[in-house]
Specification:
α3 packs across α4 and α12 runs parallel beside α13. The protein is an alpha/beta fold and 319 residues long. β10 and β11 form a beta hairpin. The strands form 3 sheets. A 9-stranded mixed β-sheet has the order 5-4-6-7-3-10-11-12-13, sandwiched between helices. Strands 1-2 form a two-stranded antiparallel ribbon. The protein has a two-stranded antiparallel sheet with strand order 8-9. The chain has 13 helices and 13 strands. The radius of gyration is 20 Å and the shape is globular. The structure holds adenosine-5'-triphosphate and magnesium ion. Adenosine-5'-triphosphate binds next to α7, α8 and β12.
């Protein structure tokens, strides 16, 4: 099985190269197989020729390229779902949050993005007969808004052990885009070792937006972001896990009608994410969720929900 081949089993990799690769954040051949050569040169200090050879060898041991449609179909059939505790939101997501896919929640501040992410880290831990996957979550926090107190409250009010719940959430505070890329490289190791079935990046592009300012930096930003997204998707496919990312809004100057906001990140993000869900505040304490882009989910359903001490709950429209 591909998984059993280790980096040091690749021909030509000795202890020195292995240690360089490890310090650069590469711990298994899956992460090497999807690494751009320039990245290996930059991060691990290898020559271009050596990096190209390593990537080529790593790809031989992972089925990155050709598979039959039947194999793809069999793989898709293994797709699982993490449910959110109430039917309307699950229906919006086609039955729950999909593994092998990236779901983006986008919206203005306080629209509920981080709350949904934290709630999902509790839900993924539930046993399969209760709508979870009996697995751990990895939370990559780029904004410092992750709250263990809040998770404790959600667990307690849902009658699950708060201490155990917190132990099953692996947390990484992320400080800049280089760090974010490194964390995702390391995630290939952690997700395998720790049985992680949900990876959250909250929020996906805030560091990219603040570090790459101005038109002249745009193409570099989009290129690196694209690489980052592909790695996340690869993680989802290899380990059959769900990726959830959050995203901010950006004013859409071309919108004369309809929603004046659009998700930030441009085409790269639009093509990279599988499902995009727009969250907005409604009257009182209510929020509305709508699918704005998805290959299979209907985009004409509005789901009302409320943020409560239990996490995310169904809300009834007030008449
Ligand atoms: N225990 C709770 N009970 C009820 N509402 C809560 C609770 N904890 C947080 N909230 C509400 O959640 C909202 C914040 O949501 P959240 O942090 O998910 O926003 P966000 O979309 O991530 O915003 P940002 O873009 O600023 O990160 C606030 O309105 C807050 O009142
Ligand atoms: Mg937030």
């Amino acid at each position: 099985m591909d998984d059993e081949v280790r980096i040091e089993d690749i021909e030509g990799i000795g202890p020195v190269t292995l240690s360089k690769l490890n310090s650069a954040g590469y711990y298994n051949i899956q992460s090497l197989a999807v690494a751009p050569i320039t990245e290996l040169v930059g991060k691990a200090g290898l020559s271009e020729a050596a990096a190209a050879k390593i990537v080529e060898e790593a790809r031989k041991h992972t089925s990155t390229d050709f598979i039959t449609a039947k194999e793809l179909w069999d793989k898709r059939k293994q797709m699982n779902r993490i449910t959110l505790g109430f039917d309307s939101f699950n229906q919006l997501l086609g039955g729950g949050l999909e593994t092998q896919a990236m779901t983006e929640f986008w919206g203005e501040y306080a629209s509920g993005k981080s709350q949904i992410c934290m709630y999902l880290t509790v839900m993924v831990q539930q046993p399969i007969d209760k709508g979870g996957l009996g697995a751990k979550a990895l939370f990559i926090d780029t904004e410092g808004t992750f709250s263990p107190q809040r998770l404790h409250q959600i667990a307690e009010t849902n009658e699950v052990d708060p201490e155990k719940t917190l132990e099953n959430i692996i947390y990484a505070r992320c400080y800049n885009t280089d760090h974010q890329q490194l964390i995702v490289d390391n995630a290939f190791k952690i997700c395998k070792e720790e049985n992680v079935k949900l990876v959250v990046v909250d929020s996906l592009i805030s560091h990219w937006r603040s570090e790459y300012v101005g038109r002249e930096k745009l193409s570099e930003r989009q290129q690196k972001l694209n690489n980052h997204l592909h790695k996340l998707l690869r993680l989802a496919e290899i380990f059959n896990l769900a990726i959830v990312v959050t995203n901010q809004v950006q004013a859409n100057p071309q919108a004369f009608f309809g929603n004046p906001n659009r998700p930030a990140g441009g085409n790269v993000l639009a093509h990279g994410t599988t499902h995009r869900i727009y969250l907005r505040k409604s009257s009182k304490n209510m929020r509305v969720a709508t699918v704005t882009d998805s290959p299979c989910l209907p985009s004409d359903i509005d789901v009302l929900f409320a943020i409560t001490e239990r996490g995310i709950e169904e809300a009834q429209p007030k008449t």
